[in-house]
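tl;dr need the bound structure. longer version: we got a ligand (flavin-adenine dinucleotide) that a collaborator sent over and nobodys looked at where it sits. i said id run it. heres the input, straight from their email, havent touched it
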Amino acid sequence: MTEMLRPGDAEYDQELAGFQIAVPRRPDVIVPAASAANVVEAVRYAGEHDLPIAVQSTGHGVAVPFEGGVLVTTHRMNGVRIDAATSTARVDAGVRWGAVIEAAAEYGLAPLSGSFPGVGVVGYTLGGGFSLLGRRYGLAADQVTAIEVVTADGELRRATPDTERDLFWALRGGRDNFGIVTALEFGLVPVTRLYGGSLQFGTESLATVLHVWRDWAAEMPREMTSSLAMVPMPDLPMVPEPLRGKHVAQIRIAYLGDAAEGERLVAPLRAAAPLLGDTLAEIPFTESGSIANEPPFPHGYRADNATVSELNDTMLDAILEHAGPGAPVPTVVLLDLLGGALSERPEHPGVDWDREARFTVRALSVVDDAGMVAIKAAHEKLFDALKPWSTGKLLTFVYGDSDAGTEASKVYSPADLRRLAEVKAAVDPANRFRLTHNVEPARDAG
Ligand SMILES: Cc1cc2nc3c(=O)[nH]c(=O)nc-3n(C[C@H](O)[C@H](O)[C@H](O)COP(=O)(O)OP(=O)(O)OC[C@H]3O[C@@H](n4cnc5c(N)ncnc54)[C@H](O)[C@@H]3O)c2cc1C
């Protein structure tokens, strides 16, 4: 039997630690897995002892708090193989995007990775995977060609568009409800360079920049992926002087075209208001993490989101009122431009989301002085105000939520929830994988 860690063991706390530190979990047993065989053993152990089971890679997207059960950690499973002939990658369960970006670059290829290279490939992709290249190439989940997964019966299965088809569908969106993925295979795209970076504006320009970006975004080709972040910068020495203590508007750009055309496209943004910072330049894709430049250190956070059909002036006013400089809880708001290839249905889609939505609105607050409860109330006010234009919600951007029992019913359509519950009944009838935003097995499936 593979190694197991229990509370009190010297390495237990370190093995449990992840990026998110505000969602407490205390499993009875942690299984540090180094191979698919270790995962099989762990799942069979959970079955024999009638225990629920969860999985963690980096801890960026920890779903729910829990006590007891088995936690399988995958960060030792870090094999990456690139097949240049087919432009595909095969990665083990614990691989982070940074490793795939580096390996693929040697062949002039890139994965559909996101803003932060430290995020895990499997959790990201099973949640959809909204990439810096998304408007040109679609969701990361839509590039997946095969998923190897250990289901609750302790069997290692291979799900593809042709084998285990229901499981192949359910895993891409239903994430960790159906088993522990041990390896993922997916397509890469021919990208080596980007015109990218960010533009930063000060507190007094927030409203102007929001409006200018919203209008500009409507005109952009699919080669342009962009987000606008509103960030309350702490008044601390670690924050560079022009931004320190300000509520900054940060426009993030990832443009798949030459620098001259990129410069032309962003000219109206540069002219929108006085700039506090401008990092836009041609960069190798291996430096794509510098665009958002997100903090790399573990912290506690809570986040919620909505997909929206538009961003009208009433909505921009509500965002400024509930999450701007005067808001009761310091909140980072991220507006992501959707559309382009993200709107197109691939041949083998995963669980549906609103592909017609124009933007996502995400709110993220650090759990620090403001506790989870105060943050939840503040986020609710914001999303209540946006409700008339909200078309859905993305589970992959829900963090630190204590409404675990109800979250699945909020994100999936009734038809998809029913189909997910049927797949669940087939592969996990005892609901062993329930320490997450749980989809319960259909009781009448048969
Ligand atoms: C700073 C930051 C930046 C981000 N940027 C983006 C972005 O640009 N685009 C985007 O789409 N998302 C982004 N995300 C969201 C991110 O994709 C999700 O939080 C994702 O779930 C993280 O996966 P992980 O493996 O790193 O984290 P973990 O917390 O280890 O896992 C997250 C979830 O995935 C499940 N999971 C992990 N491994 C497995 C496995 N082997 N089998 C089955 N289930 C598994 C876990 O059970 C858990 O529910 C970002 C998140 C953060 C914190």
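gonna send this back to them w/ a short note. The chain has a mean pLDDT of 95.
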